[in-house]
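From the shared-data thread, chain only:
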Amino acid sequence: MSTLPYLLVNPPLTDPTQPYHSIPYLVGAARAAGFTGERCVDANIDALNELARPDQVAALLARADEARDRIEHLPRLTRLDELTYESALAAQTLTPDLVSRAIEVFKDEEAFYHYPTYRQAVLVMKRWQDLLCLDGVPKSIDGFGILPGGVVNLSSYQDLCDPAVIDRLTAPFDPYIKGAFADVLREREWAVVGFSVAFTGQLPAALRLAREARAALPSAVIVFGGTEVCDDVRLAREPKNYWKLFSDADIIVPGEGESPFCDILRAVHDGRGFDGIPGILTHGSTPDTPPITYENVAELPAPAYDVWQWDSYWTPEPVVLYSPTRGCYWNKCTFCDYGLNLDRPTSPSRERPVETVLEDLAAMSAIGRTVYFSVDAMSPRYLRRLSEAMADAGTGVRWSAELRLERTFPKSDMARRLRRSGCVAISFGYESGSQRVLDLIDKGVNLAEVPAILGHLAEHDIGVQMMGFIGFPTERADEAERTYDFLIEHGELWALAGIGTFSLTPGSIVAKNPDRFDIDILPLPATQDIARYLPWQGRLERTPQWPGEADGRVGEERAAALVRTMDDRPFVGGLDTAHTLLYFSRYGPRLTPGSPGDEPAGRLARVARLDIPFRNVEEFTRFEDLRDEYFAQQRDGGATSSRMSAWLAWPGRARRGAATVAITPSGAVVALDAHDPGLPTERLTELVTLAARMRGDA
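Structure, as tokens:
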């Protein structure tokens, strides 16, 4: 056994309701290999809990008041001033203790499951996130993630490799980075420091924390891994350039990490170099094909979930991520380009023996009994065996997963098996309401059979989440509408639905065979150093399609008909989130218990009334304007922080004049006097409050 000191870090910003499972898998493997000197830091939850302290919130509110006062005295407002002013107004709906009280609601079982009270906490969190942007980049944080398509281009080296840009983007986390995280770096002379980066929104903070680690620990071996890092390597337009991005790293692990990480620890322990270790890139190496490792999941040690302080997360009970399989057994969908893959839509399918899964689940029960199976897809055969074994063993686990719409479900009585095993909800990649489009996708689904599958699950009280998209190449407007209409017609069979817009990824079958799908791939802007998505156009309509832009062919009425809840990730209503899974477990397929108009047990969110010197605050620059400009710049050579900042420096729309506004907890700013000059302001405030309650804002 070796106590070689190594540090593993999960960077901000991501879901604060549950920890990601990559680091427990790494530590489980390392312990089995004889390395017991780990220290695991979830910098995401630690940073957010630090920033949520009443003294930190009080200081933030004071800075918001200072910003508001400064802007109100400016002779002329820029677009940046207007965005900042709108965010600063959020301070009027908060008090220093509200954020910590909202977290208490999430952690308290009675308050958490009382939906009106829960929504009060959610609204506080939404306003707080907007306020945090005052210390960094305007409108950059939402849904506890760093938003793409804003001021900073998360695919541009010009932005990502500029320490000043990264420092500004991550400035909201400074109290934690310069405080508790710096203390962790000084705890020991860490031999290895690893950053597990699963999502693009974590990348800026990971780069910042790695720079801090390099400065504090010049002799440490710094390692980057995770699905986001894999994308940064395999999607780099110039392969030799990804070391510009990871300039503080000694090693990149571009594939699955358990075996490579154990080999790295052995090399450091033995004082030898890293040459010959499979599945890694050493600093400066740029092979033609990245060395991706695919682990034998049947033989992997169990993940070490005891590395986390579970009571720090924002749930009344732990929700654990676990992967009984890896990869996708179907692996044919022509739009897919997911995660750790080089020559196929996703990684190859591998299954953990069912008896080993039962052992893992039994050990996990000491942590929590609510589990999300984090898988691409499980084969019907494996799913049947696993469900039967879980039911027979009486694990007591409540679980959810993303599965395929298998036509054999009703015939094999699969829903009954799933329910007996503890399944409470399933997410399906429904994709499209057009059979022609489904066939182009090679989904292997007969749309006519889907209602029977969903009805079979409904009969056994299993909640259903439906995911899809419009805008696939050659899709007609009526087919896009049909994707919504199919769900509307069968609305009694599902609880949640999310329809996005197709984005073309470089590794997809569509991108590799554009002729087959009658499209032309357009040149990327020069600023897109990481080719996450590609612009394209159909050869018939010749309309350029840019990644991230919404498809405007389907009206708001259809989109609104699919909305069942008021919130998205990471709250109740977000697909595959911890809070949603817990609500499915408590309330069944309907997800929520009753009307959001019921009175909360305690009111946290409130409507604030304020006199301001601008008579047209509702016309100020908005996030939507920022997004529109980002896409305009993408079409015109590419968006970067410097170009976006120049746009923000232009004069805004503000016009001087006394006004009274109401600020709702959701962030809506309503100019009261403009609605009825003859109506008393007090009565107008009451009306705004009532309207906010009807919308679920209060």
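The CA atoms of residues 224 and 252 lie 5 Å apart.
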